Amino acid sequence: MTDPYLRVENVVKKFGPFIALNGVNLEVYPGEVHALLGDNGAGKSTLIKTLAGVHRPTSGQLYIEGKPVDFRNPRDASDAGIGTVYQDLAVNQLMSVTRNFFMGRELKGPLGTLKMDVMDKIAHDEMLKIGIDFSDPTQAVGTMSGGQRQTLAIARAIYFGAKVLILDEPTSALGQKQQMEVLKTVKRVRKRGDIAIIFITHNEIHSQLVADRYTFLALGQVIGAGKAGELSHDEIRRLMAGGAEMKDLEGELAAI
Amino acid sequence: MSDRSEADRLAQESALARLVRRPEAGAFIVMIVVVTMITFASDFKAFNALGLKNNLAIIAQFGIIATGAALLMIGGEFDLSIGSMIGFAGMSMAMMLKWGLPFGLGEATPFLAFAITLAMTLSLGWLIGTIVVRSGLSSFIVSLAFLFFLRGTTEVSFRLINQSTQISGLPDFKEQSWVAWAFGGEMFGWVYDAWFALGGNINRRGEQWVDGFDARVLWWLIIAGVAYFVLSRTQLGNWIYATGDNKDSARANGVPVNRVKTSLFMFTAFCATIFAACQVFDTNTADAAKGNLMELNAIAIAVVGGTLMTGGFGSVIGVAFGAVTFGLVANAVFYIPWLDGSFYRVFVGVVLLAAVFANERIRKRITGGI
Ligand SMILES: Nc1ncnc2c1ncn2[C@@H]1O[C@H](COP(=O)(O)OP(=O)(O)O)[C@@H](O)[C@H]1O
Ligand SMILES: [Mg+2]
Prior knowledge:
Number of strands of chain A: 10
Mean pLDDT of chain B: 92
Low-confidence stretches of chain B: none
Number of strands of chain B: 4
Radius of gyration of chain B: 22 Å
Low-confidence stretches of chain A: none
CATH class of chain A: Alpha Beta
Order of helices and strands of chain B: HHHHHHEHEHEHHHHEHHH
Strand content of chain A: 25-35%
Largest sheet of chain A: 6 strands, mixed
Number of domains of chain A: 1
CATH architecture of chain A: 3-Layer(aba) Sandwich
Oligomer: heterodimer
Bound molecules: adenosine-5'-diphosphate, magnesium ion
Helix content of chain A: 25-40%
Structural class of chain A: alpha/beta
Radius of gyration of chain A: 19 Å
CATH superfamily of chain A: P-loop containing nucleotide triphosphate hydrolases
Organism (chain A): Antarctobacter heliothermus
Protein name (chain A): Simple sugar transport system ATP-binding protein
Number of helices of chain B: 15
Largest sheet of chain B: 2 strands, antiparallel
Helix content of chain B: 55-70%
Shape of chain A: globular
GO molecular function, one term (chain A): ATP hydrolysis activity
CATH class of chain B: Mainly Alpha
Keywords (chain A): ATP-binding, Nucleotide-binding, Sugar transport, Transport
Domain ABC transporter (chain A): 6-244
CATH topology of chain A: Rossmann fold
């Protein structure tokens, strides 16, 4: 079997006295979707910010293709192939699809002019690869649906060299149909085979539709992990609830 | 259904519909209406040889500073110090021309007076920009502080060195200095020569009446042309849009947001300095009150030209239309005898309000109507 592209070893992150992450281990493989699940406050966002170079771990080590790495800032992380699509997506509504796609990394011809035609074509083709046929790359992003914007942000991250694509709750702000669009996008990226995806969600159904591997976080610790085939439905539901038995929770609810 | 995709919901539009929805469409219509009305109300005098020259002079003045203000607004900030910067730059140049270089370094040539002044104003623009991006304070308040500070400094310097807040009767430098000529001379003489050759442009004695347009018209065309090119065709242009639209996402994508903003504050200072240089070398005078309220005219023109107050969106062409409109109305009193000059401000108020509503509709349409 292949080696993990990214390995997280015993990562601890403290904010002052508060232990946000307490010795987390994680491995992500190219061509796989790794679902990262856990309740609010479990530490999911803190973990991905550590991977994205926003936070530095208090202790522990990250490895890219087996080599230890130290990200001092987000630039280091993105240079190492970590592409993060945050919940707000970092898109600008008033600007066109193409201008958003190349924001900060525009293609320039002689005299420093933008190669608008080339950029239009790349933006169109890259988005088509993962599922949206965008007829008009000059359309403002503000007129796009939430799912389309997500696709834009993902296509952009991939085009600019992401080997690990981190999606922070990509489906949480969307309606039913668009959630499915995003899941389709995730599967298409997975099919390429060369990109590892970390998929953060609250939604067990969504995770079961796309995930190859699971890691469950609760109170800053990994309380369970495994491959898709090895975990039962009930086990997944139990771990998502932070380890509590669903029966117990239902019982507690009924007792009130 | 199902083979229908999200993209199909974007209705296909005709070329005309697209044109009407451009940000400068409103400004264009207002301009056409104003040009037509003034043409007839002035009995065509507003566009005879002299009328055209005088109208273009003020249009160019408005156009120069409004272009600067619009670019800065697209980048998400305001500059209320433009008017005071004009006064400051004019004072600085005239004072050097009259009293020599600072620290007794000898006589000032027009080139030196301009270059030293530009160095000062660009530094001031840099300072305003740096304060805004470092402090995170609103540029409205920071540049308001500079509005007072610079106007005050201008008056104090005038009184200390010159004993009076005016300088008049400077020698005419245009003959000897190409720099003075480039700012205060006349350009496009061939237009008026051709006009004369075709049988127009004749004064009462039957000679050629007007020789050329003010140099500031050329400066306006250059500044607007460069601004248009930069905004629509270059990386810097994309950065300006991105910075004004949402600076956090721009930053997250690697746009040097602070440098973009600081450069734009320097650009408004540059525009103010060109405005002042044209004034000083044209009239050979300076006055501490010069440029008063120009910052507000510039912002009003930028808004009428289709620039959003919230940043991220605007059109250099629309701003040019706005400058034409405002310039014509400001000058209309000279060609329409019965008109009260204060109608200019009435007009500005009405048009500005209408433009803000129109722009808001555009913004809502683009951002999905929230
Ligand atoms: N910058 C920070 N400073 C202090 N505490 C933080 C910071 N970021 C996150 N935390 C805390 O760490 C815990 C985990 O947060 P987070 O990683 O955002 O959880 P999740 O994304 O799983 O909901 C929370 O209790 C949160 O309050
Ligand atoms: Mg979170």
